[in-house]
Amino acid sequence: MQKSRVRKLPPVYAPLNGPAERADKRSNPLPGRLFLPPLIIKRFEEAHEPDSNMIRQEVERDFVAREHADAILAASKAGNFAVSFRVAGPATISALQRGAAAKGHDILEKTIKASSIANAYAADADKKMAMVRRAGIEGYVGHWERGELKGIYLASSDRRPLAHGQKHEIYPIDMSCAEALDESLVDLKSRERWQRLPFSGDYDMHDLLSFSGAGRPAIVPSQSLREQEIVDAINQAVAAVDPARPFNEVEGRVIRHGPQVNFPAYSLTSPDKDERSKASLFGLIEAVARPGEFPVAFANRGKWQIVRSAAALEDWYRKQGAQIKSTWSRTPGDSGFVSDGDGFVRLSKGRGKMAASRR
Prior knowledge:
alpha+beta; 14 helices
């Protein structure tokens, strides 16, 4: 009897930055996976119980674009899952609404916004921010050298020849004065649909729980088929309502990697040898390994909810009948993390090893 072929899925963190799959955006590009055609999303919008105005306004201002909010809710209801997002911020949301590409986790530089401009230019921050807004580049990912804004990251859809070892085109800009900035942007703005070429932020998932299957709801394991299925479902749902983000264009996808809750497990078991080596040698970045920053917004099986603190997050898990990750627990002695006092944490022996294995 002929053995059936089992397709091995690539890890969720790596492939979303790789070549786009060949897919007709009008059909389900991944057979057997959850797929939400526009009609299903429309029916959900008409039938679901509205969220409170204050919660909805906060979600659309700080977490996800208004155009994407109902699509994400529809995906969470159809797929029987809950997903939370960290704050994206108005600058990133506005750039995504203009069609900007969404960066993967391989781009670590900061978005061009009021806080990053203030950090770079101090006393001249107001003047520089006015230049940025006048030029229409707020919300894009900047390239910063010696504390100054020197360029903008561009997506591969308009890639020019790159220097050896360079992964992304960095378009140079001149922030010396308003006239110089405008002049430096002439070439970029002459390109077709230029506002879709720069990278902005993505939607950073914080938690991911599945309510499918027997037993109580559980955190979706890192690099699992279920994790990839949910990531694909959200991106497909957004693609169905946003023509600038067809599912087969990877850099247009608003979800580019797995949730923060799975960061420790991913780092320690990554197929990327360098990623594993860094985690083993230096430990894990504490700000990402631990929960937060808060608030986070949950799309919970068709309804938006806001969680504003680590204590409230633990309470949220309890109300869902789920168990929070042991490394995120606030119970004394439960966490497997030991801080080194320098912005990194390590997994303690015994409990930490066990915590990392809960994937």
